[in-house]
Write a structure and sequence with these properties.
The complex is a heterodimer. By secondary structure, chain A is α/β, with parallel strands linked by helices. Chain A has helices at about 15-25, 45-50, 60-65, 85-90; strands at about 5, 30, 55-60, 80, 95-100. Chain A has a 5-stranded parallel beta sheet with strand order 4-3-2-1-5. Chain B has one domain (about 15-140): Hypothetical Protein Ychn, Chain: A (3-Layer(aba) Sandwich). Chain B is about 25% helix and about 25% strand. The chains are: A alpha/beta, B alpha/beta.
Chain lengths: ~100, ~140
């Protein structure tokens, strides 16, 4: 059983991303959307936690672009996906957990 | 509705994940409402209390002065709806200066064991919680 987790809160405001990373299993995917994409910026505490996480981390490109975050600002190990990639991730995993 | 589900014969593992304190927002109360509604569908239901969600289970809650209903007694009713697994994360409690002694003593009656009262709260570590979450078919997050 693998899970797609989505996180839509800024890691500077809430601990959703951090808590999600520590509860995600190997084989799970974590997708940052909406204000969650701020957690993908390299050099942040949030991005540092990704290196020790078991799950793969993705970020939604449209939400990055909307917020003016250039692709060269994204931390290593994070994959940028579009809405089509979002759909693929939802289809590839057996359940979706949208962290609120 | 229940007939349809029986025809399908599928019992899924439903997890309601609680990560918010009880009275600052409506999420905790709404989660409990959804659990009680969902309990009518004879699925394998469990609850998880992570981060501020552990505050929902503290004992001696008294909302007289804030004009909001104290819904914590409703957790005692969950056993009557066959909701008997409330996973509480040890680290989340400890980070907030709490121990299990600060939580309500929640029990359910086992009809297969002469209605013996058994504890509903299952204390788990963060790693154990991770495995519990990974074992679910459906997760609803509040």
């Amino acid at each position: 059983m693998s899970i797609l987790h989505t996180v839509n809160k800024s890691p500077f405001q809430k601990n959703d991303f951090s808590s999600c990373l520590s509860h995600a299993n190997a084989g799970d995917a974590v997708l940052l959307i909406e204000d969650g994409v701020y957690g993908a910026v390299s050099g942040t505490e949030a991005a540092k936690q990704i290196s020790s996480a078991e799950a793969s981390v993705y970020v939604l490109g449209g939400d990055l672009a909307a917020r003016g975050i250039a692709s060269d600002k994204i931390a290593d190990g994070i994959t940028v996906v579009g809405y089509d990639g979002f759909v693929d991730l939802a289809a590839e995993h057996q359940a979706v957990n949208s962290w609120l | 509705m229940s007939e349809d589900m029986e025809e399908g014969g599928t019992v899924k593992k439903f997890m309601y994940m609680n990560r918010k304190a009880p009275y600052g927002t409506i999420y905790a109360l709404e989660a409990l409402e959804v659990v009680l509604i969902g309990a009518a569908f004879d699925q394998d239901v469990s609850l998880a209390f992570i981060d501020d969600g552990v505050f929902q289970l503290t004992k001696d809650q008294n909302t007289d002065d804030i004009g909001i209903k104290n819904f914590s007694p409703a957790f005692r009713a969950l056993g009557d709806y066959d909701v008997t697994k409330l996973y509480v994360e040890k680290e989340s409690l400890a980070e907030r200066g709490l121990t299990q002694d600060d939580l309500m003593d929640l029990v359910w009656e086992d009809e297969d064991d002469d209605w013996a009262e058994k504890p509903s709260i299952i204390m788990v570590s963060r790693d154990e919680m991770k495995k519990v979450l990974g074992d679910q078919d459906v997760i609803m997050s509040f």
